[in-house]
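Incident review: delayed structure delivery

Summary: a single-chain prediction request sat in the queue longer than the usual turnaround. Root cause was a stuck worker, restarted by the on-call engineer. No data loss occurred. The affected request and its eventual output are reproduced below so the record is complete for anyone auditing the incident later.

Affected input:
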Amino acid sequence: MAGRAGAPAGAAGDPRLSLEAVFREERGLLLAALVRRFGDLDLAEEVTSEAIEAALVRWPAEGVPPKPGAWLMTTARRKAVDRLRRDQAYAARLAVLQVEAERAAPAPESGGGLPDERLQLFFTCAHPALPAEDRAALTLRCLAGLTTPEVARAFLVPSATMGKRIVRAKHRIRTLRIPFRVPDAVELPGRLPGVLQVVYSIFTEGYAASAGPDLQRLDLAEEAIRLARILRRLLPGEREVAGLLALLLLIHARRDARTGPDGALVLLDDQDRTRWDRAMIAEGAALVEVALTGGPPGLYGVQAAIAALHDEAPDVAGTDWPQIVALYDVLRGLAPSPVVELNRAVAVAMRDGPAAGLVLLDALADEPRLRGYGPFAAARGELLSRSGRAAEAAAAYREALELAGTEPERGYLRGRLAEVTRSGEQR
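Output delivered after worker restart:
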């Protein structure tokens, strides 16, 4: 890890960057261990921040210690004890919480034989008693280490609003006495999907931003991948964790080709596949095999298999569309939804022609969850255009344009609308 060798201040490069790398890696471990020790998220966050602030003062002058995590933990625990000595009422309340925590199941052990309490924090942040938006926000704040303003930017809300949301989530954890523990073997299958959904939601916002000047939020996508890697290390036997990480890697591998030099949207058909990250694709493809081996396929494993077929194809024409349609058939059995049906219809159009896809899209026209869903209107516009129905395509593109959230999407749709309008005028 960068900085673990105790490089002195003034070494080549910016020493603060090495400190940030240490803090980024150690913060989640430190916070989770302190929550486990004291049973209080607010106290753990406060002393974690104070320990990092102390390191920022001392390490540039003295060098990063050989074991920065141990240094931070010792400093944070001392600060926590000092605070509890000053506030006896707070200490008494925490004593009750600690007794309850000790009754909870012990944390699983990592490969090194030491408990990694981050897994407990994952399940606490993603507890079903918390609203969905609060789960993602708390996960970014506690496990990804984003500041409250950074989390607010991720959700496109004011910092004050996000601050209140995070405070509300912590309060709910306290009042409901949500335990800081990993679910037991009976509970785990029911709770794990919620944790995976939180990480996937973070990635989705990074892959396709809901609003703003940019198509992608690479910082969020990379944070989601980092969180998925942590889960993979902590739960190596869970195939759906492997499937989620595979899916994120296989999609993120195309990041550099998804926009042009000016930030304009580039669809899959037109992407320069030489710009795809082949190492990431290879890692993702290997994880797909893990996800699909040893039992019935899972939601993320199947989606990752679809992504792998896209990534491994030489071009759009050479993509195995029959196999992709077959995988969507499996997916609709696992998790039926209008969005799955939409994506399957597009795959059918690639396999059988635009008319076949339009039949399926028309059957979804009255689906309430697709009303106001921009990708549905855009897909209809594309298939109508390919079918030579320019006027109808233009109407669909206008609808998609009204619903688009980012400027690159709007720019692409404006271009397609102009093309089909010209095409209709020439007929």
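Verification: The radius of gyration is 24 Å.
Action items: add queue-age alerting; document worker restart procedure.
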